[in-house]
Write a structure and sequence with these properties.
It is globular and about 50 Å long. Strands 2-1-3-4-5-6-7-8 form an 8-stranded mixed sheet, sandwiched between helices. The chain contains 8 helices and 8 strands. By secondary structure, it is α+β, with helices and mostly antiparallel strands. A hairpin with a 6-residue loop joins strand 6 and strand 7.
């Protein structure tokens, strides 16, 4: 890691952060003092017509005035996330905007496959990365990644990945099955997660998707001030389990 102007070196084993994603989140919010307020401010924009987002890169000490940057707006109200940033991302956050019945209350397939593309291009610093979504449904989630290869295994868009990405037939079949069950509307398919589906059901279905695809990630529900993070998992009967982060 390079810090412009110099910064203290903090040595921490990657395995420790993977085993304790709460620590990863806490460490990042401490490193970037402006990040929490940036997320709170971002949450106030969900009533706008266009999506909004912020990000942070790996080459910052965290205290610089421009350490938290704005994701530029692309076409049709979408965000234009640079797939080739100067250094890898350590945080990405974005909104799903109103009306609530026309936007996802959890991460969308497009969100997830964008992360897979960035992982494929080595443009995410996995040991530090946190991905946020804030929605017009009033939901706020954070996602951390503990296994890059697992995440990309069945969560991808072949058209985005381009040349050099050869998943193989069996992997394509499994990916298609997961996408069809949870997100795809092609051929009049009715997926479990839609823009107008119930947010409480979406949360459970998203966790089931994570479990079925074994995506090597952890999901957190976040309060309105971004001070409380609650890890969400499923028990052996697929009932919701919650575990507040203890720092």
């Amino acid at each position: 890691m390079h810090c412009p102007g110099g910064c203290p070196e903090i040595v921490e084993e990657a395995e420790d952060l993977a085993a304790n994603p709460c620590k990863k989140i806490s460490k990042q919010l401490t490193k970037f003092p402006a990040m929490r307020q940036g997320l709170v401010d971002l949450a106030t924009t969900t009533s706008q017509d266009t999506k909004n987002g912020i990000y942070a890169l790996d080459d910052y000490a965290g205290t610089e005035p421009d350490a938290i940057k704005t994701i530029p707006e692309g076409t049709d109200g979408e965000l234009e996330i640079n797939a080739n940033p100067p250094t890898p991302y350590v945080m990405l956050a974005h909104t799903h905007n109103s009306p609530a019945d026309s936007t996802y209350s959890v991460f969308s397939w497009e969100d997830l496959t964008t992360i897979s593309l960035l992982l494929f291009k080595d443009q995410i610093e996995v040991n530090e990365f946190v991905f946020y979504v804030i929605t017009a449904d009033g939901t706020r989630y954070a996602l951390t990644i503990n296994d890059k290869e697992k995440f990309m295994q069945y969560i991808f868009d072949g058209k985005k990945m381009g040349t050099g990405f050869n998943p193989g037939l069996e992997r394509l079949r499994k990916k298609g099955k997961i996408e069809n069950e949870y997100y795809s509307k092609e051929f009049n398919n009715i997926p479990l997660i839609e823009e107008n589906s119930n947010p409480a059901d979406d949360k459970l279905n998203f966790l089931n998707m994570m479990k079925k695809a074994d995506i090597g990630a952890d999901l957190f529900e976040v309060n309105a001030t971004f001070t409380t993070f609650t890890k969400l998992t499923l028990d052996s009967n697929n009932n919701l389990k919650t575990e507040p982060c203890q720092y």
